[in-house]
Amino acid sequence: MNTKTLLFSSLLFVLSAGSVMGQAKRDLALDKSFIDGQLAASAKQIKVLAAATPEDQFPKTFEKGAHVFSGSRWWCSGFYPGTLLLLSEGTGDKELLNLALAKLKHLEKEQYNKGTHDLGFMLFCSFGNALRLTGDSTQFKPILATGAESLTSRYSPKTQAIRSWDHGKWKFPVIIDNMMNLEFLMQVSKMTGKQKYADISRTHANTTIKNHFRKDNSSYHVIDYDPETGAVIAKKTHQGFSDESAWARGQAWALYGYTMMYRETKDKAYLNQARKIAKYILNHKNMPADLIPVWDYDYDKVPSDSKIYSQRDLRDVSAGALFTSALMELSTYTKGKESTNYFKKAETMLKNLSSDTYFAKNGENGGFILKHSVGALPLNSEIDVPLTYADYYYVEALVRYQRLLAGEPLIKE
């Protein structure tokens, strides 16, 4: 080892050690036995789901006493193997790792799928975790690289955004959910050295800041663009109460997405956007005391003659799980009382999600970990049921907290 290499390695060690020490000093209210216990209970529960899942299918939900599965093309297909991988990491259970790797064989063909914007969910939550945990770059890097190329085929220089849907009457719809797929592109950019993936991610994030947010920092669900000029045609919702309401999971996608983009770029515009979103969701008058949000922040505006009136105050645990993981990370990029507030709120959410109110008893809930999520209430779809992505982000939050307890960095690449 030459002198320059030795000095560089020493610097990395010092920086890493300083980061770990800083995190270790944080006042952690949840102890190792609690976190490890929740991970173990989650692992036991997901094995129930695994036993019920057909070899070539992917779990979506458990509704009216029956499992609902999908093929690999469904946007949620990457969450189940991703959850298996995270639980394997958190518990050391090799059986879960093997279950995940077997399931990935039925998912890898989606790397060629140019008909969806959800390849971040489908491929990065699954193959991205597999690469990180196994180090098998020969097997997993080509899949991720091909998938990133498929995703960027949906990018338009005219709209400066990645198209979300190909269905409906939309011209060029972009949903706030799309922010979540940018981590996939940012990571593949680093992995391949191809700058275009990072450039597209930044451009999409910038376009979204410009057009998706209201003055109060809440987010629209859908922005429809003119594909020829890039002009905004309409600002709508698809899963929220109304076009002008704040659909809870949409706010969660936004918070998570901009927190992640700051991590990847260190661009303070993204950090500031994440902080604005966090302020909106945490200070809203309709945020419940246990911090697990109702499916739409404007649920109290639902008129009494609406078909959803009787269900207007249902919780969405999937949004709560996303908030938990995102706020935990955001706390590491802020300081003082602000940082403490984010972290303590995340801890409260994590503890409450782990309570009997939301955490399923072993063998119940079809083997899904969390109860009480809402897919799309106005569409009468997946109402007050478990959802595979709620489980994924809950387990991600547990694993992130476990790292802090061990004095390790919150994020591992």
Number of domains: 1
Task: Kindly state the number of beta strands.
Answer: 9
Q: Report the span from N to C terminus.
A: 25 Å
Helix content: 40-55%
Structural class: mainly alpha
Characterize the overall form.
Answer: globular
Give the CATH topology.
Glycosyltransferase
Integer-rounded radius of gyration = 20 Å
| Beta fraction | 5-15%
Q: What's the story with the biggest beta sheet?
A: 3 strands, antiparallel
Mean model confidence by pLDDT: 94
Order of helices and strands: HHEEHHHHEEEHHEEHHHHEEH
Are there runs of 5+ residues with pLDDT below 50, and where? Answer: 1-24
CATH architecture: Alpha/alpha barrel
SS field, number of helical segments: 13
CATH top level label = Mainly Alpha
Spatial order of the strands forming the largest sheet: 5-6-7
Structure characterization notes:
- By secondary structure, the chain is mainly alpha-helical.
- The chain has one domain (40-405): Glycosyltransferase, CATH 1.50.10.
- The protein is 51% helix and 9% strand.
- It contains 13 helices and nine strands.
- The strands form four sheets. It has a three-stranded antiparallel beta sheet with strand order 5-6-7, with no helix packed on it. The protein has a two-stranded antiparallel sheet with strand order 1-2.
- A hairpin with a 6-residue loop joins strand 6 and strand 7.
- The radius of gyration is 20 Å and the shape is globular.
- It starts with a helix and ends in an 8-residue tail after the last helix.
- Mean pLDDT is 94; it is low at 1-24.
